[in-house]
Amino acid sequence: MRIARFSIDGNVAFGVVEGDPSDAEGPVLDIIKGHPFAEFERSGQRIPLNKVRLLPPVLPNKVIGIGRNYAEHAAELGHEVPEVPVAFFKPSTAVTGPGDPVPYPSFSAELHHEAELAVVIGRMCREVPRERVQDVILGYTCANDLTARDVQRRENQWARAKGFDGSCPLGPWVETELDPSDLGIMCTVNGEQRQLGSTGDMVHSIADLIVHITEAMTLLPGDVILTGTPAGVGPLNVGDEVAVTIEGIGTLTNKVIKRG
Ligand code: MG
Predict the structure, then answer these.
(1) What protein residues have CB closer than 5 angstroms to ion ligand 1?
(2) Measured in angstroms, how far is the CA atom of residue 104 from the centroid of ligand 1?
(3) Domain spanning 63-258: CATH 3.90.1720.10
(4) If you measure from the C-alpha of residue 226 to the centroid of ligand 1, how many angstroms do you get, rounded to a whole number?
(5) Would you say the pTM of this structure is higher than 0.85?
């Protein structure tokens, strides 16, 4: 099931996406009563997807990023794959939605794209044992772990390099029925392919990551884990359209704009 969050006429709601984007009439949203973090009913009230503005599919309390989780990507930046996952935060204010413009950060001259599979947490959890990991996952969406690479090199902590406003596009929706173990993941810039990989190449699995993170902290419904990026990261310029596509989920597109 694909669950989108959207606004229409000033109201915000969740809806189940029905139909394929390639359908002639286009997909529709069946508005749900309540929210996707509990049992919910579909209202039967349907709105064409192209009549709404999609929002970030969740509003996380926190986004936990994982660095260097694909060997080829670690190598392209001259790093070893860490034995223990490297975790960092992106603040809730970094999150932005599908189609939203991303202002180029004023303090950087080297903005990079990083296509990533995002895990969306469905329930409050801590110290999750490996055999319970599936129970705490609501689903998966596409993410772009936008990074000010020059700032990341200069500053030991990555709070500014990876935490600036707009640095965490998420979307277009949460896919709740998906085996994430071997999905194609791609990034294009202005239609040209930059990154192409498989989630099967992650060093630390999603289960490993959830066990590792929840040893330390409680995850809340809507929290997001970014699982690392495959090789091929590279620069973005003002005016570029960057698209992250993950097999079985969809495409997350954002345009880089000049900061106003
Ligand atoms: Mg990343």
Answers:
(1) 114, 145, 229
(2) 17
(3) no
(4) 7
(5) yes
Give the Å distance between the CA of 46 and the centre of ligand 1.
Answer: 36
Bridge pairing between strands 192-198 and 111-113: unpaired
How does pLDDT run across 93-137, given as a tens digit for each residue?
999 999 999 999 999 999 999 999 999 999 999 999 999 999 999
Closest residue by Cα to residue 198 from 178, 186, 181, 183:
183
- Average pLDDT over all residues of the chain: 96
pLDDT digits over 161-177, tens only? 999 999 999 999 999 99
Fold of the domain built from segment(s) 2-54: SH3 type barrels. (2.30.30)
Confidence of residue 20 (pLDDT cuts 50, 70, 90): confident
Q: 58 alpha carbon to ligand 1 midpoint, in Å? A: 19
Domain ranges of the chain: 2-54, 63-258
